Amino acid sequence: MTNSQANTATGGGGDSLFSILSSENRDFLITPSGDKVYIKDIEGNTIGLYFGANWYSRCENFTPVLASVYHQLKGRGSKFEVVFVSSDEDQSSFDKFYSTMPWPSIPFSDLQCKRTLTQKYQIEGIPSLIILNPDGKLIRADGVELIYRYGWRGFPFTIERISVLEAEEKAKHSSQTLENLLLVEGRDHVMSHEDQVPISSLVGKTVGLYFSAHWCPPCTKFTKRLVSIYNNLKEMNKEFEIVFVSLDKNEEGYSQCYNDMPWLALPYNMEFAKSLSRYFDIQGIPTLVIIGPDGKTVTREGRNLINLHLEMAFPFTEAQLRLLQEKMDEEAKSYPSSFNHVGHRHVLKLVSENSGGGPFICCECEEQGFGWAYQCLGCGYEIHLKCVREVEGDGASKKQVPSVDSFCAISSSGV
């Protein structure tokens, strides 16, 4: 279900909450301890139907976020309830995953009810959070995004409430400066490894806010690449700085993570880091948010732009990206239209954004790509131009395409 459908839908017709959640022989939900919660006892609440499974990492990441919001709303006396609809593969997987949740659930054994709910709300991916009003009518289908973006402040998740929050957010972004982003009462500085650095000294520079954490393997991988790009830009005397925003679970993790970084950092403050994450609507890390010399947000896609264009992405503006796109289009004329890649059994075709390409994850280096790529039109396998390796003769030997090395600005190989 699309966001536009979510915004306008009043689905559920005349269905009551009871008819949505019950089945022929069941008028109750279950708790993690195995107790029963009768559906009539949660009527009158705004309901979040949480579709998820233990086998998907995004569900594991979202569940504690939702649980935190759930407890906050309960503590404020808000009439909100979540009902888990499991996509787990077996009872033991369900039991393990559900034990981490504080809300009631459709019994795992009620396959028909789970199937009906999945079809009714057109669930095409997980995690998914469907918001129903107290009458059982659909309010929003994009509950996961709203929880990440607004937390408990999004309640009751109506169009009117979200419109108010969006207006507040727009006003904040329009008056945004680097100083009002990073200043907090009693602190007007960020940290280097040696000293305090006044935030005012960063004004007028392009600044990357790097959201990362020691516990996150993709962060470790990207940090290595970002260090190289940062050092290159410093050697080129570019007015560029990075500020580490830690999402580590404790100060020890923060210290371990920052030890590998040559740039500046905010002092460890989880609550402040969370507020910045919400402000920029960050749903996963690593994320590199680029702030321009005027203090306004240039892009939240700094990580992808670094992966695609390396230091040539600087200063990350639309004008710079247009220049890079023109260069890519010109240089791509020298590439073969098809290619036998050693890592795939089918012939790969050269595609662009206008001929079947677009945003993708490279199947070789597992990093973001966009635009020009080699793609298998049959099965969707897609790789950066830099990552192709040619099959020679009997297929035993291989080499990288020589022309790709000169085109490294559009991508980078895995670290």
UniProtKB/TrEMBL annotation:
Its EC number is 1.8.1.8. One of its GO terms (molecular function) is thioredoxin-disulfide reductase (NADPH) activity. It catalyses: [protein]-dithiol + NAD(+) = [protein]-disulfide + NADH + H(+); [protein]-dithiol + NADP(+) = [protein]-disulfide + NADPH + H(+). InterPro entries: C1-like_sf, DC1, Nucleoredoxin-like, Thioredoxin-like_fold, Thioredoxin-like_sf, Thioredoxin_domain, TryX_NRX_thioredoxin_dom. PANTHER family: NUCLEOREDOXIN 2-RELATED (PTHR13871:SF7), THIOREDOXIN (PTHR13871). Keywords: NAD, Oxidoreductase, Repeat. This is protein-disulfide reductase. Belongs to the nucleoredoxin family. Residues 167-329 form the Thioredoxin domain.
